[in-house]
Design brief:
This protein has 249 residues and is an alpha/beta fold. It has a single domain (4-247), classed as 3-Layer(aba) Sandwich (Rossmann fold), CATH 3.40.50. The chain has helices at 44-51, 69-72, 93-98, 113-125, 141-154, 171-186, 201-204, 221-224, 227-234, 240-247, and strands at residues 4-15, 18-29, 33-37, 58-64, 76-79, 159-163, 190-194, 207-211, 215-220. The strands form two sheets. It has a six-stranded mixed beta sheet, with helices on both faces. Strands 2-1-4 form a three-stranded antiparallel beta sheet, with helices on one face. Helix 4 crosses helix 5. The radius of gyration is 18 Å and the shape is globular. The chain starts with a strand and ends with a helix.
Amino acid sequence: MSKVVIDIKGLNVSYTTKRILTSIYLQVESGKSYGLIGPNGAGKSTLLKAVLGLIDDYVGDIKVLDKNIDEVRKHLAYVPQKDEIDFSFPASVNDIVMMGRYPHKSIFQRLNAEDKKIAESAMKSLEILDLRDRQIGQLSGGQQQRVFIARALAQEADIYLFDEPFVGVDITSENIIISIMKNLVKDGKTLITVHHDLTSISTYFDSVIMINQRLIAAGSVDKVFNQENLSKCYGPQLTLLQKSALLVK
């Protein structure tokens, strides 16, 4: 039976005088893969960062695994948008994936053979083990994204937050990533993924969260991913192409 692993009550977030999120009440259940959708500027990335405790100035209450985020941080893995990553940083693929093990270590504790084994397994599953000694900036966009997802896998978290993981990746990388995500759900993990391609929602996710500064709908794809809610969420931004694709899904 699914349990609530993220419980958000009355979340309001503002930057200077601009309101980004308004009165968000949301419960995320374990063992499900949620597509987080909404138009540009809807607050999708802000919602993830609020859950992660990366936003200090907000109103409301957020509990993760029934605790405050600082008590359970190692149980959440996060893959940020690619434009938030410095790909010129002199780190190898292996260095970055090994970073996923740090949340399980105390400040003076060294990484050991078991950590290296876990990181190697993550790289193998993302098909980047042969790239382990390459500098991150030398890789293609799809390979880079796979590296950071491997880092998240190496953390062995319970909840995974992905911010636009399919942007700028090739079809091979996209297929590998979605396969990994589906396997995580089979293992009982919880996933929230910011996603833009509405035509693949029903293929990639079993649940959906629709926001446009406020919560429009949340629930299983077959119940809430419909024309009425999409129109409320996107308004004029819902393109003719998207409407056509949804009509034949």
